[in-house]
Amino acid sequence: xxxxxxxxxxxxxxxxxxxxxxxxxxxxxxxxxxxxxxxxxxxxxxxxxxxxxxxxxxxxxxxxxxxxxxxxxxxxxxxxxxxxxxxxxxxxxxxxxxxxxxxxxxxxxxxxxxxxxxxxxxxxxxxxxxxxxxxxxxxxxxxxxxxxxxxxxxxxxxxxxxxxxxxxxxxxxxxxxxxxxxxxxxxxxxxxxxxxxxxxxxxxxxxxxxxxxxxxxxxxxxxxxxxxxxxxxxxxxxxxxxxxxxxxxxxxxxxxxxxxxxxxxxxxxxxxxxxxxxxxxxxxxxxxxxxxxxxxxxxxxxxxxxxxxxxxxxxxxxxxxxxxxxxxxxxxxxxxxxxxxxxxxxxxxxxxxxxxxxxxxxxxxxxxxxxxxxxxxxxxxxxxxxxxxxxxxxxxxxxxxxxxxxxxxxxxxxxxxxxxxxxxxxxxxxxxxxxxxxxxxxxxxxxxxxxxxxxxxxxxxxxxxxxxxxxxxxxxxxxxxxxxxxxxxxxxxxxxxxxxxxxxxxxxxxxxxxxxxxxxxxxxxxxxxxxxxxxxxxxxxxxxxxxxxxxxxxxxxxxxxxxxxxxxxxxxxxxxxxxxxxxxxxxxxxxxxxxxxxxxxxxxxxxxxxxxxxxxxxxxxxxxxxxxxxxxxxxxxxx
Length: 639
Fold this sequence. Notes:
The protein is mostly helical. The protein has helices at residues 2-15, 34-37, 41-56, 65-68, 88-91, 116-128, 138-163, 179-182, 189-203, 214-217, 223-238, 267-285, 305-314, 349-354, 365-368, 419-424, 496-509, 514-527, 533-540, 550-564, 571-577, 581-584, 599-602, 624-629; strands at residues 327-331, 393-395, 409-411, 425-427, 431-432, 444-445, 468-470, 479-480, 484-485, 491-495, 589-591, 606-609. It has 24 helices and twelve strands.
């Protein structure tokens, strides 16, 4: 137990920020017993925070399969051992996954994955001993129990999304358990879903509607968070991967019990709809609203409308949680969210000389092409946009100067795109408002062609292999020049816009008319500076009636979701549950010819990765060693 608390102290110390100061008040060494851990309120609160510890690790995008295996970002695979990013998660799309040694192994806590079953044991220990502190008030006790029940539900959900049917870990096994008791079985998908929902239903009533003491408690679970996660769980359960998936119809355990239902159940969408409505209502009733950029006193008054729109979108996740009305749930930042510098190009001579920012989270051309035109429809559909000539070269004019540097030669694909493209993606010639320069008429811009440019490749390590950066994951106030000055932000887990898109999806799957579905899409699109779905498709699409069919509207919703939630570790999970990730990964991931300086040579797509993804990759393999130790476990299909 001594080593346990020492280990806990190290974890907590690494993850603590200003809003979780109490994380540091852990039990001293040499007294690591359960009785001591729950001898009074303060010690019990320390143990409560240890239940949150694994959750805090989820903020690192390189450990999130929804980020690393989504096709949104690629990462060079030639980094040396002294680099701080573990590339395991990124390399999975290269076909490195195996049942002998799984990457992002959240079952065992190996290869970039967190030990979630260990986290569940801590949660169960907390619930088993919550009655021991005699100075714990009834209100605090009820809230803490609810927080731990939420954490148990979410930890199960994380495993569920990766492995499907999992052993429900409701209680800790006694220390004198018999071998047959320890050899647990996997529970069917529907049983796991019902268990998670039951925990959330039990937790929600005693959770606060909002965090009042934000200095000490921001990041702890609230009722809106619990209801939003419930909506996410039930939508996931209703989705094609888990609802009547024929690929898993014959998947059974050692006793012949089906682990997936082979029959599609439309009522699962009804449960998801009710959960979405409840989550949206409680959020809106408690002041949540789509984010609006509020310039500080240091921002010049001459911001143009186009730049205001870009900043409104760019700050949607990077504004302080305390004042951001859209963030339902986010995680405390470590070192300025953790990975801003991996999404930031070098913009100045000093930055190019110092090489602090790696800039290695590279956005493929295919992800860039996902964004709409300025008319709010896909680039493949807009009848006014030159799709076939998009790789030609064009010189930016003065009218383009708030998006693309005036007089700069860049590819035609960068012109006349929607505001989220300019807010989310940095590219050669693209304007970068911020980094210490806040004059909209004198902004920095990305110069990425060839090794002689500021942002271009300097060696085989500090390079962006595609020529696109995830600008969305950098606070515009973060400065990289002679050194790095981070402006922290909380990594988003759930935003109100995501909840609107979730509800639009559910309504469409219920078979509701487009008139009922579209308003929730249009709320998100209006904030993005786009016309509504009906107007955009009617006036600009080559398929003007697309939104009138369920399948056409489904395509619109899915693309809207992938754009709005890009780089947040959300769209990748959505692609999995939709069973669309295999189609995305069937195409090569490409970037520009980054070592060339002339535009005509630079703007030639080159294949970086031919992804390896097939049906079996929708679920993670359980490590083979576990199947040997526990004969009751069965492996996921085709592993």
